[in-house]
Amino acid sequence: MKVGSTHLFIRCKKLNRNGRMKTELRAAITQLSAERNLPKEVVLAALESALVSAYKRETSALEQDVVVKIDPNVGGISFYVQKTVVESVANPDREISLEDARALRTGAQVGDVASIECTPRNIGRIAVQAAKQVVLQRLREAEHRIIYEELTDREGKVVSGIVQFIEPKRVYVRLNRTEAMLPLNEQVPREHYYRGQRLKFYLLDVAQGGKEPQIIVSRSHPNLIRRLFELEIPEVHNGIVELKAIAREAGHRTKVAVTATQENVDPVGCCLGPRGIRLQSIIKELNSEKMDVIQWHADPGVFISNALSPAQVASINISKETNTATVTVPDKQLSLAIG
User: Fold this and answer.
1) pLDDT value, residue 57
2) What are the residue boundaries of the structural domains of the chain, listed by start?
3) Which fold has domain 7-147?
4) pLDDT value at position 231?
């Protein structure tokens, strides 16, 4: 089609459509939209595309440029064959002569695109049944595309899911309208998963697969800790308290280093909450994984002392070349420092 070309919409016949069919069509569009949680525009586009396929199959008009228009307000369906206006017709399926175009509309010019209505009389139940499978396929594709776009925006965040079924090397989780996979290397060794279990997961990766999005979630990723802190602790969510570092041995122990971005704010106290209730809610989500919140410090020596607290540190020898630290503690404090 040439840029700037004119479209001519020409009605060849006027049909008396059954009012009941219109009502059923409107109801079907509304129902599909609600059941699939898809915008009505997406459902309409899928139905129009499906009806084009059904029309071409029924009329053997595979080479024609067919367009279907559905009026969702009244439930009307119109079929058009689009043809380019030319001086001399070489392809009757795609072209119409200037003489014939002007017989339909006097203002037609070469290069215009004429949309000639070709709505069949038996479009009702026959066309809808013929298009049924195509409609469902297009709706599945649209649904998968919308799910992919939604989850791509949530990649790197926490999502809630329900364990569906368990295999030796993976666990399948239901995330609202789609399914995600929890591979063995992203599981917590000490956790036992069972069908119907509701958990929070770190959305690790979303990829566009062959039929539907391929979604990988994690229970062992250190960033799960970061996102849970953001959910449970308002000061972390608002940026008043910053998580500087996270060291996690999934299922056993996690240490979180925090600092305040404002004066007169106790970052450790904010994370603990009254009687430790904030931290306990995170620990409960992690199935009682031990967790320490420590004060971060720019001085490595002070930071290490804070990390080993309440053990008393006798001396710290830091090697910048090997990026290691040798810490000396009293004999009686050794088990406390290691623990």
Assistant:
1) 75
2) 7-147, 154-218, 221-294, 297-339
3) N Utilization Substance Protein A; Chain:P; domain 4 (3.30.1480)
4) 93
pLDDT of residue 10: 42
User: Residues 136-150: pLDDT tens digits?
Assistant: 776 677 777 777 777
∠ CA(155), CA(145), CA(78), 5° rounding?
155
pLDDT at 16: 43
* Residue 264 identity: N
pTM attached to this predicted model: 0.60
Q: Which uninterrupted H or E stretch holds 280? A: helix 277-285
- Which element (helix H / strand E) includes 182? strand 178-183
DSSP 119: -
Sign of CA dihedral 269, 272, 273, 276: negative
Task: Say whether 297-339 and 7-147 share the same fold.
Answer: no
| Joined tokens for residue 266 | 């106790």
Q: Which CATH class is domain 297-339?
A: alpha beta
Q: Write down the CATH number for the domain with range 154-218.
A: 2.40.50.140
Structure tokens that stand for 55 in this block: 């029309």
From the list 166, 145, 119, the residue with the least C-alpha distance to 12 is: 119
123 pLDDT tier (thresholds 50, 70, 90): low
**Count of all residues that appear for the chain in the document:** 339
CATH topology of domain 221-294: GMP Synthetase; Chain A, domain 3 (3.30.300)
**Alpha-carbon distances of 84 from 80, 91, 150, 314, rounded to whole Å:** 13, 10, 40, 89
Tokens of 240: 């008043």
Rounded Cα distance between 155 and 147, Å, is 12
Judge residue 10's burial from the number of C-beta atoms within 10 Å of its C-beta, 0-12 exposed, 13-18 middle, 19 or more buried. middle
The residues near 230 (Cβ < 8 Å, ≥ 6 apart) are 236, 237
| Residues 198-249: tens digit of each pLDDT | 999 999 998 876 666 788 999 999 999 999 999 999 999 999 999 999 999 9
